What we know:
Blueprint: E1 3-9, H1 19-26, E2 32-38, H2 44-49, E3 56-61, H3 72-83, E4 89-92, E5 97-98, H4 104-114, E6 122-131, E7 133-138, E8 144-150, E9 155-156, E10 164-167, E11 171-173, E12 176-189, H5 193-203, E13 225-227, H6 237-242, H7 258-273, E14 283-284
Parallel strand pairs: 1-2, 1-4, 2-3, 6-12, 12-14
Antiparallel strand pairs: 4-8, 5-12, 6-7, 6-8, 7-13, 9-10, 10-11
Amino acid sequence: MKISGFTFLRNAVLNGYPFEESIKSILPIVDEFICVIGCGIDDTRDRVAGIPDPKIKIVDTVWNERMQDKGFVYGQQKMIGQFQCSGDWAFYLEGDEVLHERELDTIYGAMVRNIDRREVEALFFDFFHFYGTPDQLGVAGYRKAPRIIRNTLRSIAPDGLFWTVLEKNKRGRYPRAVSAEANIYHYGHCRKVKFMNEKLKQVGRYWGSEHAEFTGYGSIDTAELRAFKGEHPAVMEAWLKTQAETSFFQDPSYKLTLRDKRNRLRFWFEDTFQVEISKKHFKKLGLA
Length: 288
């Protein structure tokens, strides 16, 4: 069994991504790691090249600045990386996502266990989406998502987040997946405000919009937030001390939106009936 890891990056230093920590966290369980790096204005490429591991292979790209439809340029860059993967499994990890060292054996074991189960097309993870500070989580978005896909499938990425498996040339569907029995630690929304503001200014055009000045994480319904009671991956220790926000204050003028009210109803339903109904970009298989 061969495992390929991959990601794509651009101006990751300027935007405050823990990309070096992300790459280091996955290296122990992959046979190769494809890092697609877009032409930027910081030293992202030099830093990746400076990680002393021969598994890392850099692919240089130039982004299509005219592609401004719903983040499809992200899907393009993701697929450039996946097309370079030669493993049985392709393990996609975004530049602000990190694996915990305690779960590496579990993740590897899940790939071994399912390599000959052809009906298993992907492995999904539970997500810790840190919001505002590394001490709290946001739970309104997706909570589970596939990050490992069988590399013999005809799959494409409509955007950076998910995969579509193609059948009969014209029909697409989400991959059939089982749990990797592990977590992804997602730090994109607890980086310092200055980094988040820079990131939003850069990416808005790829979604056909412009972002207003980002002044803080407080414009949110606190009903979305939960305390994080676990332990962060060891590789994140320095980043958390120097690159993450350390305090959170809700904007006192914030008013609930219709989306917030719908989410509150969903949270009540989940708590009352002990079910989890967040958006999922996969079909869960019921395998023993």
